Amino acid sequence: MDLIWIIDAEHWPRALLRAELLERGFDAVGFETIESALAADPSRFPDAIVLEARNQELTPARVAKLFDLRVPILLLGGAIDLNDPRLRDFPWTAIVHRPVSLGEIADRLTALR
To answer: What HEC string does the chain produce?
Structure first.
C-alpha cells in the first residue's frame, strides 16, 4: 500500500484529504508541519507527499529536507503562496492551485502509482 504524507497546518483539510485517500486504498498520515513529518517513524517513509503551502514556513532549508527523501511531492497553494520565489527552483512533481477538490488531489496521487 502506498504511504502518503499530508502536511497541512489546518486540521480539517488534512483530515478530509486523509479520509479521501484511505477510501482510495492509500495509507495516508497527516502532519501539521514538515518537522513533525520528518520526526515520524523512519521505517515508514512515504511514497509521496502532499504539502499545503498555506500557514507553513516554507524556507528553502525546510523544503530541501523533504526533497532529501527522493519521493514525489505535490505542492498545494494559492497564488500568493505559489509565487514565492524561494519555492520556484524545487523539482515539484506537481503544483496544484487552490481551489482544488479532494478528488483532484487524490486523482493526481493515483496517477503516480
So the answer is: CCEEEEECCCHHHHHHHHHHHHHCCCEEEEECCHHHHHCCCCCCCCCEEEEECCCCCCCHHHHHHHHCCCCCEEEEECHHHHCCHHHCCCCCCEEEECCCCHHHHHHHHHHHC
